[in-house]
Amino acid sequence: MVSFTGSASTARLLKSHRNVVNGGIRFTSETDSLNAAILGPDATLGSPEFEAFVKSLVTEMTVKAGQKCTSIRRALVPQALVDDIVAAVKSRIEKGLIIGDPRAEAVTMGALASVEQLADVRATVQAMLDAGGELAYGSLDAPAVTRGDGSVGVPEHGAFMAPLLLTWADPGALAAHSLEAFGPVCSVIGYHDVGDAIRLAALGSGSLVATLATNDAEVAREVVAGIAAHHGRVLVLNREDARTSTGHGSPVPQLVHGGPGRAGGGEELGGMRSVLHHMQCTAVQGSPNMLTAVTGVWHTGADQHFGEHPFGKNLAALRVGDAVKSELRQVTLADITAFANSTGDTFYAHTDEKAAAANPFFPGIVAHGYLLLSWAAGLFVAPEPGPVLANYGLEGARFIKPVAAGDSIRVTLTAKKITARETDEHGEVCWDVVLHNQDDEIVATYDVLTLVEK
């Protein structure tokens, strides 16, 4: 498998290699994209969302001199606010941005990666201007910069570039949504309504990330649902999370970092989703015994080993499939009533015969599901001290058939999965638990998790 991070053009070149095309090599890429930031129609001038939007836009334009695959390339804003956004961005840049030699303490933005990169960015901006874009802020000329000694001047050499904002008379102009100047460059594009903003965002043909600045829940729902298919990640920015959000360009490992279409279709970072993305998935068919042998996880229907109580075995002795089966225990109306009174769970299905019988799911008064779980523990737990140290949770609990007063239950506990921790003197055991009634019908199932001595 080849996983690539870089430019879309390089990804296309690699993807065309004969061993990818004809040899079956899996190829995945995370590439540059024309990421958008959308200012919601409710985020008027002076609102917290407007301010957060401007701050995020300037940050993404200037960090690493805009040379990030997650940088904001398109600011989609209500048509009436285009000039206000340009003015606000201009003001924030001029108040806090100092371009120059990073060795100078005051400098906040350095040069582009190379003079060749500078030439590429200038050429792309010129192509955008030729295609209908207008320079709303900034200049293609070399900016005055702060030198390493603190002096200021226009350098004869170097790859310094000042931030640029473009505007477009035609919001749908192809160049605005297809050309990427990989530097401190962004287009401010006006939209008419929420549906128009969704349409414009999609013209990017697939992006890594989009930011939506809004405090209107309905706008958030409509926009996120509308753009999700075109983005790997969407940040909804408002007054509640503006101070604590990791930001447009800084996902945390648990989030998808990648995107569809032009963005390459790949995923990165450290979450389990990313790990699984880079693994091959193989389906295995077989009998429960064979599946248990192959996977190391007990499957329903596989052999069970009854004998010594498995709670008396440490991890060295315990095997997948070791099991214990209890005797039947009858549930009485007095038991149900006592549990209802002691817990305060007096839901009518456990306390009112007439109302319970009128419920389509119940034959009359039935036992609490949690009463059954508690009794199940009493039926399978070995009371004396042993290698089982603690119960630390249940997973996948399902109550399948109601248990009425007069019914009986029994429990079967089977070691399902054993995980020995590398650094501890104990490991984890997942146990399959099945509750049957007196007619051998399944009434409840779940997994119980325990910590067991090695």
List the helices and strands and how they pair.
Blueprint: E1 2-6, H1 8-15, H2 18-21, E2 27-31, E3 35-39, H3 48-62, E4 72-78, H4 82-96, H5 115-130, E5 133-137, E6 145-146, E7 152-153, E8 164-168, H6 174-178, E9 185-191, H7 194-202, E10 207-213, H8 217-227, E11 231-237, H9 272-277, H10 288-295, E12 305-306, E13 322-325, E14 329-330, H11 333-343, H12 353-358, H13 369-380, E15 388-399, E16 408-420, E17 426-437, E18 442-453
Parallel strand pairs: 1-2, 3-4, 3-10, 4-9, 8-9, 10-11, 12-13
Antiparallel strand pairs: 5-8, 6-7, 13-16, 14-16, 15-18, 16-17, 17-18
Helix pairs in contact: 3-4, 7-8
Structural summary, described in words:
This protein has 454 residues and is of the alpha/beta class. It has 2 domains: 32-250, Aldehyde Dehydrogenase, Chain A, domain 2 (3-Layer(aba) Sandwich), CATH 3.40.309; 288-453, Thiol Ester Dehydrase, Chain A (Roll), CATH 3.10.129. 28% of the residues lie in helices and 25% in strands. The chain has helices spanning 8-15, 18-21, 48-62, 82-96, 115-130, 174-178, 194-202, 217-227, 272-277, 288-295, 333-343, 353-358, 369-380, and strands at residues 2-6, 27-31, 35-39, 72-78, 133-137, 145-146, 152-153, 164-168, 185-191, 207-213, 231-237, 305-306, 322-325, 329-330, 388-399, 408-420, 426-437, 442-453. The two termini are 37 Å apart.
